């Protein structure tokens, strides 16, 4: 279970461990029939289909949501790695430009 809300309280003890501390039920729209559940710190493992069930007395409602989590392009990039990459690219550009200019002035 991703999140359990019953009788005005969140029941976190029934929550799956991987969602611990990452869900928030936004209660603003409950009285008007709107339900928002936020999952923070999305992970690739959160990708998939979620089913939301709501019961209120004899009334029952169900909604299905497909969530697609896109992983970042450089998920392991560190700032120093980016800096080294930029320096390498700039070095190649300046060496190429220098060789071109030297060839033009000498030839």
Automatic annotation (TrEMBL):
SUPFAM superfamilies in UniProt: Immunoglobulin
Domain of life, per lineage: Eukaryota
InterPro entries reported for this sequence: Ig-like_dom_sf (IPR036179), Ig-like_fold (IPR013783), Ig_I-set (IPR013098), IgSF_BTN/MOG (IPR050504)
GO cellular component: membrane
Gene3D superfamilies in the record: Immunoglobulins
Bilayer-spanning residue ranges: 80-102
Chief site of localization: membrane
Residue ranges annotated for the Immunoglobulin I-set domain, each copy included: 33-69
UniProt keyword terms in alphabetical order: Disulfide bond, Glycoprotein, Immunoglobulin domain, Membrane, Signal, Transmembrane, Transmembrane helix
Presence of keyword Lyase: no
Compartments it resides in: Membrane
GO biological processes: regulation of leukocyte cell-cell adhesion; regulation of T cell activation
UniProt-recorded name of the protein: Butyrophilin subfamily 3 member A2-like
